[in-house]
Design goal:
Elements: H1 3-24, H2 28-50, H3 53-63, H4 70-98, H5 104-125, H6 130-134
């Protein structure tokens, strides 16, 4: 992770914050309260993602078509499940904090908007949205 990578992460965070705030239609005072909270939330999510390195190592090996042992698959599966559990706990805790600034409708909108942002990013990068394919849903 060099300086360039850090810069692109900051740009990503800012783009996501802008996207989310536009969708939430926040007043200026709510924006001033929400933005720093949301930045903290994104950093917490980023730290959690860094801790989920084993699954990424497997994905790299798969792309390079390298051999992967059963033990590595087991470890990666366990790591991914633990990551998802921790991610859900983190989201729940942060959504309670956001509830101090946002109305219930805005909280729900935030949840949907975060999913939509991820989908938009995938589309812009030219990656297919694997979740839709796996569930047999037509792509938009």
């Amino acid at each position: 992770g060099g300086e360039g990578q850090q810069h692109s992460i900051e740009e990503f965070y800012q783009a996501k914050l802008n996207f989310v705030m536009a969708e939430l239609k926040l007043t200026e005072s709510d924006s001033l309260r929400f933005a720093p909270l949301y930045k903290e939330y994104q950093q917490a999510k980023g730290e959690l993602m860094k801790s989920a390195g084993k699954g990424r190592a497997i994905m790299r090996k798969m792309r390079k078509q390298e051999a992967i042992s059963e033990a590595e698959y087991k470890e990666a599966t366990q790591g991914e499940l633990e990551y998802k559990l921790k991610d859900a706990e983190l989201n729940k805790a942060w959504y309670e904090k956001f509830g101090e600034v946002l109305a219930p409708q805005q909280l729900y909108t935030l949840l949907r908007t975060e999913e939509r942002f991820a989908t938009e990013m995938m589309r812009k990068r030219g990656r297919p949205n694997h979740d839709n394919k796996r569930q047999g849903k037509p792509q938009k």
